[in-house]
Known about the structure:
about 180 residues; two-stranded antiparallel sheet; globular
Amino acid sequence: MPIYTPARQSIKDLASGILCATEMHKPLLDARVKIDFVEARAVEDPETHKKLDTPITIRGRKAFGMTRVIGPKDRVMGRGDVEVTLDADYWDDLTETQQSALLDHELTHISVKLDKRGIVRDDAGRPKINLRLHDVEVGWFNSVALRHGTASQERIQAKAIVDVCGQYYFPQFVAES
């Protein structure tokens, strides 16, 4: 079980800067979405100092950050609208630029629900939130790609990503001139 703590002020300040500087995040500011930031650390063995767990997992896989909508009962009790949890062990090893990118990624998951009248609000007057899915999601098995080559969904998806985005995600495959 990870050890959770409220996020450091430096993380909140970085998030605030990203929210204010990024046009895509303007609806979050307009709706006054309240975001709770949490840090998760792995429990360490007291003798060996080896990490005994993974602080954040999504569908059983290690994750460096996670965003979730906070339930209505907790929201009316004073919690935020959304919670962003960061793997603090991983965070501490990142450069400031990498920290900014990770935080921006998690903030991009947050989307304010809108209708023809504008911001949709719940019974407590809080903005309703949707979680935005990734633009690109993959679920690959290396063994299937090896067995079936270009007929595999793994290779078909990889080709589609390159066809749509070029080498943007895979610049290392392009020879330097």
